[in-house]
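pls design
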C-alpha cells in the first residue's frame, strides 16, 4: 500500500509541446507526473501513457519515453515584482531565495532576471555572469525607482514570452518563474493573451506567491502548463522553489508521431496515465499537402520566369541607354553635315534649349541615398503622442537618424524627439559610422545599465534605452 501511494499518478501536467517544422509530425512532449504527495513519478514505460488528439477518445502509445536529460540546456527567466504592492520584507524574502539559487545552480541551468512594475527592467541577461554584490546594488536602485508604481503582471509575462521565443532553439526547455503577491493594478493584456502567447511559444509560467494566496497567479500557472506555489517566509519560499525545481528536473519527455495536419491552427494533445489526464493546446508548423506543394512548385517556377524576363528586359534597356548617346551624336553630325545654314568660321552657335534641358535631366538621374539608423519608439503603458522634428507621431512607430547627426531627447519642445513625462532635456544621441554616442544629462537606462554622462558604444547588436515609460530600440 505504501509503495502504491508513491507510484500511483494523481496529477499530470503537459508543460511544453515541441513541434518544429524540420521534424514534424514528430513531437516532443514535456510532462510532469506527480503522485498524491506531490512528488514526481518517473518509473514509466511507453505503454503506461496514452496520447489522444483533439476530440479523439482512442489513444495511442508514444514511440519512446525518457526522463529529462541532465545536460539538457534550460533557461529560467525570473520575473520579480518590485511595485508598490510588494513590501520591503517581501522583497527581502524573495532575494534570499534568488541569490541562493544563483550560487547553487548547475552549469547547464541558465538564468535571466528581470524586475517589473509598470515597466520591465533587466537585472541580468542570459549568459551574463551574475555578480551578487552588483545585483544587490542594482536591485536596490530599480526598487527605489519603481516602488510607488502599479504592477502590470500580465503585460510583463506577455513581453517576456516574446523575448524568450527567440531563444527556444538554443534552450529546448525554457520557463518563466514569477515572484509576486498576485495584484495586477492596471494591465493592457489579460489572461487570454497570456494563454494565447503560451500556446504559440509553448513556454510554461510557474508562479510563487509571496505572503499571499493569489487566485490570479494560480489562473496564470494553470492556463500555461505551469504550477502555483506560495510561501509566507524565506524558508517557505525557498522550499517552494526547491520543490518546483525538483519537479522540473524530474519531468519526462514523450516522443510521439502525430496525425494532426500541419495547418498552423490550434490543436489539443491529451496525455493519460491511469486515471490522471493532462491536456495542452499547441500550434503545429505549416506543412503543405502534396497538391499545395505542386501548386507552390509551379507558382515558384512562374515567379522565376517572370524575374528572368524582367532581368532580360532590364539588360536590354541598359544596353540601349549606353548606346543612345553615340546614336544621338551620329544623328547630330549627320544633321550638321546636311544642314544648309552651317555657322561661319569664328561664329559661336548658341546651344539648343531642348538639349540643355535634356542634359539636366541626364544629370539628375543619379541619386544619392544617405544611410540612416532606424529607432523604434515604444511605450509599455499605452499609446502616446510624441514629436520628432516637429512632426506629430504615435508610439510603436520608427524614426530615422541620419549618419553623423545628433538628436536631443526630452519633454521640452526645443528637442528633436519630444516625449512627455520625462526631463526637459534628458539625453542626446549621436550616430556615427559603427558607433553610438549617448550623452545622458539625466539618469538613462541603456541595456539595463544606468548611465549618467557621455559614453561611446561600438559593439554591434541591439540597444534598448529605457526613459520612464518609454523604450527606444535600435540595432547598431
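designed seq:
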Amino acid at each position: 500500500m505504501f509503495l502504491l501511494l508513491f507510484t500511483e499518478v494523481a496529477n499530470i501536467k503537459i508543460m511544453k509541446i515541441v513541434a518544429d517544422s524540420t521534424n514534424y509530425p514528430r513531437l516532443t512532449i514535456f510532462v510532469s507526473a506527480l503522485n498524491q504527495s506531490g512528488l514526481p513519478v518517473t518509473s514509466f514505460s511507453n505503454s503506461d501513457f496514452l496520447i489522444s488528439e483533439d476530440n479523439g477518445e482512442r489513444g495511442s502509445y508514444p514511440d519512446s519515453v525518457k526522463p529529462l536529460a541532465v545536460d539538457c540546456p534550460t533557461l529560467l527567466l525570473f520575473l520579480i515584482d518590485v511595485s508598490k504592492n510588494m513590501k520591503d520584507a517581501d522583497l527581502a524574502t524573495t532575494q534570499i531565495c534568488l541569490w541562493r539559487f544563483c550560487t547553487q545552480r548547475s552549469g547547464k541551468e541558465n538564468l535571466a532576471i528581470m524586475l517589473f512594475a509598470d515597466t520591465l527592467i533587466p537585472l541580468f541577461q542570459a549568459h551574463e555572469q551574475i555578480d551578487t554584490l552588483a545585483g544587490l546594488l542594482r536591485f536596490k536602485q530599480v526598487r527605489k525607482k519603481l516602488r510607488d508604481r502599479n504592477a502590470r503582471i500580465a503585460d510583463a509575462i506577455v513581453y517576456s514570452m516574446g523575448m524568450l521565443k527567440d531563444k527556444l532553439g538554443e534552450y529546448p526547455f525554457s520557463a518563466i518563474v514569477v515572484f509576486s503577491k498576485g495584484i495586477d493594478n492596471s494591465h493592457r493584456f489579460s489572461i487570454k493573451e497570456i494563454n494565447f502567447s503560451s500556446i504559440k511559444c509553448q513556454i510554461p509560467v510557474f508562479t510563487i506567491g509571496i505572503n499571499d494566496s493569489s487566485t490570479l497567479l494560480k489562473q496564470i500557472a494553470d492556463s500555461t502548463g505551469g504550477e502555483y506555489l506560495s510561501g509566507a517566509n524565506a524558508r517557505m519560499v525557498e522550499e517552494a522553489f526547491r520543490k518546483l525545481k525538483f519537479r522540473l528536473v524530474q519531468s519526462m519527455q514523450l516522443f510521439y508521431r502525430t496525425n494532426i495536419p500541419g495547418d498552423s491552427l490550434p490543436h489539443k494533445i491529451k496525455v493519460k496515465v491511469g486515471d490522471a489526464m493532462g491536456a495542452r493546446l499547441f500550434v503545429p508548423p505549416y506543412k503543405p499537402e502534396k497538391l499545395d506543394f505542386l501548386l507552390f512548385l509551379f507558382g515558384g517556377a512562374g515567379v522565376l520566369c517572370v524575374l528572368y524576363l524582367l532581368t532580360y528586359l532590364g539588360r536590354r534597356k541598359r544596353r540601349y541607354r549606353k548606346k543612345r548617346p553615340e546614336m544621338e551624336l551620329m544623328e547630330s553630325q549627320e544633321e550638321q553635315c546636311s544642314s544648309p545654314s552651317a555657322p561661319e568660321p569664328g561664329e559661336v552657335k548658341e546651344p539648343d534649349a531642348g538639349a540643355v534641358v535634356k542634359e539636366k535631366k541626364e544629370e539628375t538621374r543619379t541619386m544619392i541615398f544617405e544611410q540612416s539608423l532606424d529607432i523604434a519608439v515604444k511605450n509599455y503603458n499605452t499609446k502616446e503622442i510624441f514629436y520628432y522634428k516637429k512632426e506629430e507621431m504615435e508610439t510603436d512607430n520608427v524614426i530615422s537618424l541620419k549618419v553623423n547627426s545628433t538628436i536631443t531627447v526630452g519633454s521640452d519642445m526645443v528637442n528633436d524627439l519630444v516625449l512627455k513625462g520625462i526631463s526637459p532635456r534628458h539625453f542626446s544621441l549621436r550616430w556615427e559610422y559603427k558607433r553610438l554616442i549617448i550623452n545622458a544629462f539625466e539618469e538613462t537606462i541603456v541595456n539595463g545599465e544606468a548611465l549618467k554622462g557621455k559614453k561611446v558604444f561600438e559593439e554591434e547588436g541591439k540597444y534598448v534605452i529605457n526613459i520612464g515609460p518609454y523604450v527606444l530600440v535600435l540595432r547598431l
